[in-house]
């Protein structure tokens, strides 16, 4: 299926960044729900049940037309590769919550936008503007200051978290490419259907009966992740991958809010200083992209 062409008015960059920031905010809710049950259930079981929820919602919405579009897609190999990369990132990242502090995990994970920026220039031929490079650098520096991963050692858990960041960055590049010719619903369904098929045999051996509260949490992760994935793809249609990767830093704010609300984590001064840098990077990037977009639109 060829996705309908998306109009790109002068406010498209701002709309894309809004979609991206909203998606990452919802992902923060998703991560908070996962953190609450990761010590009780294996990551395979959690991801399987989450993906079942998302796939069922997609089937209800898309029905036979979505399945026909997927069967006829010329991008099936790219869709499969994206699913494999994101599954690998999931497997390598979330179990490290048992070994690394949240601040350490946050810092390591947020290497991904920087990798995305570099890969977008190499493979998508996106322009490495001063604003995009500066925003990525300022945002990452802000995350490091806010997270303050003192005593971080490059052991196996840290290496796995960094590897997850790389896989996620490559998957972001693929999503940007595939979104040009596939519907968002096909993209969301394909990746979660892949998870269901691959993980079901493993989940059978690792299965633990769900408590009512855990079942509600997993239902919540499915609804949150499905909505966030859809918004992220819509954002990828409107803004370059290098910009979307930098927008990912906006999730930092919610990680500290949820840490305070649910785990009583008290933000120190460095948290506010780092968050301020992240917000500054986002504002500067939004202003630059909007200005450049209007300059292109106004040029005869």
At a glance:
With 300 residues, this protein is mainly alpha-helical. Helices cover 78% and strands 0% of the residues.
Describe this entry's structure for a reader.
This protein has 300 residues and is mainly alpha-helical. The chain has one domain. It has helices at 12-37, 43-71, 76-93, 102-109, 112-123, 130-147, 156-178, 184-206, 212-238, 241-247, 251-263, 269-298. The longest helix is centred in the last third of the chain and has 30 residues, at 269-298. It is globular and about 45 Å long. The model is unreliable at 1-10 and 296-300 (pLDDT under 50).
Question: Main attributes?
Answer:
300 residues, globular, disordered C terminus, mainly alpha, disordered N terminus
The topology string of helices and strands comes to HHHHHHHHHHHH
| Distinct helical segment count | 12
Biggest sheet overview = none
Oligomer kind: single chain
How far apart the termini lie comes to 33 Å
Structural class: mainly alpha
Helix content: over 70%
Average of the residue pLDDT scores: 80
The coarse overall form would be globular
Kindly give the count of domains: 1
Poorly predicted tracts of residues: 1-10, 296-300
- Cα Rg: 19 Å
What share of residues are in beta strands?
under 5%
How many strands appear in the DSSP assignment? 0
Summarize the helices and strands and which ones pair or pack:
Elements: H1 12-37, H2 43-71, H3 76-93, H4 102-109, H5 112-123, H6 130-147, H7 156-178, H8 184-206, H9 212-238, H10 241-247, H11 251-263, H12 269-298
Helix pairs in contact: 1-9, 1-11, 1-12, 2-8, 2-9, 3-7, 3-8, 4-6, 4-7, 5-7, 5-10, 6-10, 6-12, 8-9
